[in-house]
Amino acid sequence: MSSNRNPGRVAGFWYLLLCVIGPLRLIYIPTKLFVTGNAAATVNNIAAHEWLFRFGIVGDLARGVILIFLVLAFYRLFKGVDQNLAVLVVIFGGVMPAIINFVGVVTDASALMVIRGADFLSVFDKPQRDALVLLFLHLRDRQNTAAEILWGVWLLPLAELVYRSRFLPRFLGVWLALGGVAYIILSLTGELVPQYQQKVFAYAQPALFGEVAITLWLVIMGARPPALDARSPSFPAG
Q: How large is the average pLDDT for residues 177-203?
């Protein structure tokens, strides 16, 4: 079926691509390369697997671009439901997170620059350079924690659009709203009481799978606004 007839499937494929690329830098690379509290071991791992770390940087650049295409696809899908809410999805779900992604790339690139030993960093000894790398990586983590509030805020207007659309199941809208609230709570927990963030994340996971659910629904079932299904002209023939 063509994308003109089923814009929901277009949005679903962009969302699926985002779900595939997103975990590379957020989950896989930290698990494989970062050693908690050990700057030297972390630096050695990144130096030994520099291309993996670079793929994470490229993945973040790709995520920023994909986000823009995704929210534009959602705008096309939902503008007939409520254009103001659709604009909020574009701003909070695309433009602002994409900017944060690009800033995060600068932080990772700075860490890599220190690891590769730029000449002007020769005034620092090896332990100091390792500590500087760890500082950049921690800054990136704090940036992700702050960004979680946007990951949550954009899901709220999207949830309302899904719920009101009548061409998507309402339970998906409810699930997305729960996920949005969960992300906001995760962000605030990370900023206020970070020692409890992992515990809150464990409890929040079922709510966060709402994004996976709508992605699969859109890819498999698609979605078409009623206006696209109309076969009669807007005005009677004279």
A: 95
